[in-house]
Amino acid sequence: MKLISLSPTILLQARGFSFSYCSLSLDHKWHDTFAEDARKLKENQELSIGSPLRIQKLIASQSDPLLAKEIFDLASRKPGFRHSYAAFQTLVLKLGRSHHFSLMQSVLSSLKSQQYSISPSLFTRIIQIYGDARMPEKALKTFYTILEFNIKPSPKHLNRILEILVAQRNFIRPAFDLFRSAHKYDVAPNMESYNILMRAFCSNGDLSIAYSLFNQMYKRDIVPDVESYRILMQALCRKSQVNKAVELMEDMFNKGFVPDTLSYTTLLNSLCRKMKLKEAYKLLCRMKVKGCNPDIVHYNTVILGFCRVGRGADACKVLDDMHANGCLPNLVSYQTIVGGLCNQGMHDEAKKYLKVMISKGHFPHRSVVHSLIKGFTNIGRIDDACEVLCEFLRHGKSPHVDSWNEILPRIYEADDGEDLEEILNNIVRVEMNPNTRIVDIGSQLEEYLIKKIKARPRRA
C-alpha cells in the first residue's frame, strides 16, 4: 500500500472543530474516508485533514456544494494553509453547476486576490455553466471578467459566448456588437465565429447581413468552409431564392470545395419544390462526379419531385439509377413510385413495383394498396384488384376497410356463388371501422378469389 508521509500532528480550534494532520493512505478507501470526515464535520467532531491535495479531494467528494464550501472556508482559516488551484477550480465549478452563482463569484475573487496562475479553461467552463443556465448576460460579463484576470480571451471563449447569446433572439445584436469589438481585446474572430453569426442572422431573416459577413471572411483572409456555404444556401432556399442557391453551389465547385450531403439535400429539395426537376436530376447525376455519392435521401427527394408532377416514368428511371449506383431503394422509394403511378393511372406498372417491393420485404402502407385496388376497380378490372388483395393477404397483412368496401360489392355483383355469400355474411358480422383486421375471414376470401380467378378465362 502506497503511503504519503505528512508533517507531525498540529491542532487548530476553529468554529469548534479540531483539525489534525495525519498520514493518509491512497487506496480504494478514499471515498469512505471522505464520507466519514464529512459526517464528523457535521457533528462537530475532530476532523483529520492532511495536505491541500486531501482537502481538494474532500471538497470534490461532497454532493452538497454548501458543505464543500464550508470545508474550503474552514481549511482556509488554518495558519499557513494554502489551497491548491485544483481545490479552487473544483469548488468554483461545483458551486456554479448548482447555481450558487454569488458564492462562485466570491471564490473566484479569492482566486484573483491570492494571485494564483489561472487556466483559461476555467472560464470556458464558467461560460458553459451560464449558457446551460440560460443566463446570456452573465456569460457576456464573464468575457470581461477574463480581462480582469489579465488573461487574453481566446477565440474559443468568444465563440462559446456568441453561441449562448444568439440562442436567444433578443441577444443577437449584443452578440454582433461583441463580435465587432473583439479586436479591441486582441481576439481575432475565426471562421466559426462568422458561421455562428451568419446562422443567427439567417434564422432571423437578415440575409443581407449574413451575406455581408460571408464576403468579409475573404477580405480578412479567412477561408469559409462547407458549412459557411450551406448556411447561406439553406437561407436562400427558405426564401425561395433557389437560383442564387445554385450559384453558391457553383461557387463552391469553382473554389474546390466538396459540398456535404446536407447541402445537396437542401438544394435538391428546393429545386423539386420549385418544379425545376431537370436541374434537380442533373445535380443528382453530378454528385458522384464531384466526390459525393448520392444516398437514399437524395434519390427519394427527386423521386418524390417527379411523382408530384405526374412524371412517374421519370421517377422509375431514378429508381433504376439507384440500383446502378449501388444504392438500394427502401420502403419510401417504392411507396412513392407505386402511389405516383397510381395517380397517373399507370396501374400495371404500379402493380409490378408493388410485387417487387413485397418480394424485397418492404410491405406498403394500407393506403398505397388501397390506391391500387381502387384504381383497378374503377376501370372494371376486378380480377387485378383481387390479385393485389390476395397478395397482401398472403403475407399476413390486413387491408384497410375501405379496400374491402371497394372490392367486395363488385365481386358480389359479378358472382352469385353461395361460398362468397357465406363469407360476406361473416364479414358483415364483424364491426367495420378503420382499424378492423379481418385476417381469418380474409384468408377464406383469398382462397375463394384465387379459385375464381383461375377458373375465369383470360382476356385476349
Query: SSE order, as H and E?
Result: EEEEHEHHHHHHHHHHHHHHHHHHHHHHH
Number of helices: 24
What's the overall average pLDDT, rounded?
A: 82
Biggest sheet features: 3 strands, mixed
Q: pLDDT under 50 segments (min length 5)?
A: 1-31, 44-48, 427-437
Estimate the helix proportion, in percent. 55-70%
* Total strand segments: 5
Structural class: mainly alpha
Q: Hey, roughly how much beta strand do the residues contain?
A: under 5%
Q: Which term fits the overall shape?
A: elongated
Distance between the termini: 95 Å
Alpha-carbon Rg, integer:
36 Å
PPR repeats: 190-224, 225-259, 260-294, 295-329, 330-364, 365-399
Family: Belongs to the PPR family. P subfamily.
Organism: Dorcoceras hygrometricum
Pfam family, one: PPR_2
Structural features, described:
By secondary structure, the chain is an all-alpha fold. Among the domains are: 1-118; 132-224; 367-460, no CATH class. Helices cover 67% and strands 3% of the residues. It has helices at residues 30-42, 52-61, 65-76, 85-97, 101-113, 120-132, 136-148, 155-166, 172-181, 191-203, 207-219, 226-238, 242-254, 261-273, 277-289, 296-308, 312-324, 331-343, 347-359, 366-378, 382-394, 401-414, 418-429, 439-455, and strands spanning 3-4, 12-14, 17-20, 24-25, 47-48. A hairpin with a 2-residue loop joins strand 2 and strand 3. Helix 6 runs parallel beside helix 8 and helix 14 (261-273) runs parallel beside helix 16. The chain is elongated.
